[in-house]
Design brief:
It is built from four helices and eleven strands; from the N terminus they run ββββαββααβββαββ. With 203 residues, the chain is of the alpha/beta class. It is globular and about 55 Å long.
């Protein structure tokens, strides 16, 4: 994959990428000679530093070197998951399909809905403090929004996405196997069939 750093445009110039292009080569052990000046190697290349990219990087970082191409991002809103005994997966699936006005694939909706509670538990284990209620904060403060028929929205005040992103970003930056390439954009995905499967590099 080739990537370029975002440039700060001079007055009167159009926005764009500068000419400082870097080549990233991932999935090593090909046995093919590569000019070391051509590329930088990693085991996992993550394009984007949003919640999904950061969560993936943290999960694989113990198994190899991770490079994240990073650009500023911000997630908004709460997170919906079946976390109450009064709620059900079927209800959440039905609400989502109705709100999707026929555009949703039910199998995808069901997979996301049924895996959501486990993802919430992961976030809690990573240190996310969702709004809670009760004398000792023992219960999640679930709210009802939009097309949801039950209380299943988790919040961190009114900046849920920002809080989760900041915590995962800090954890990723502390991990010794994760390196950030700040303000980088992916330009091309270049496949060379002489490399091993899924090998990416300059032809």
């Amino acid at each position: 994959l080739s990537a370029s750093r975002a440039s700060r445009d001079e007055p009167g110039e159009k926005s764009g990428l500068d000419r400082d292009v870097e080549i990233f080569l991932f999935h090593r052990s090909t046995g093919k000679s590569i000019n070391p000046g051509m590329c930088e190697e990693c085991d996992f290349l993550v394009i984007g530093s949003g919640l999904a990219g950061l969560a993936y990087a943290l999960k694989v970082a113990d198994h190899g070197r991770v490079v994240i191409l990073s650009n500023p991002s911000m997630a908004q809103g709460g997170i919906a998951a079946v976390m109450s005994p009064e709620d059900s997966f079927e209800s959440h699936v039905r609400d989502t399909i109705v709100a999707g006005a026929g555009l949703c694939h039910e199998d995808v909706v069901r997979t996301v809905v049924e895996s959501a509670p486990a993802r919430i538990e992961e976030l809690l284990a990573w240190g996310i403090r969702f709004d809670a209620r009760g004398p000792n904060g023992e219960s999640l403060d679930l709210t009802r929004e939009g097309g949801h028929s039950h209380r299943r929205i988790l919040h961190v005040q009114d900046h849920t996405g920002q809080e989760i992103h900041q915590l995962l970003l800090e954890k990723a930056k502390r991990h010794p196997n994760i390196e950030f390439k700040e303000n980088h954009f992916a330009v091309d995905l270049i496949l060379d069939r002489d490399f091993a499967p899924f090998q990416v590099g300059r032809p």
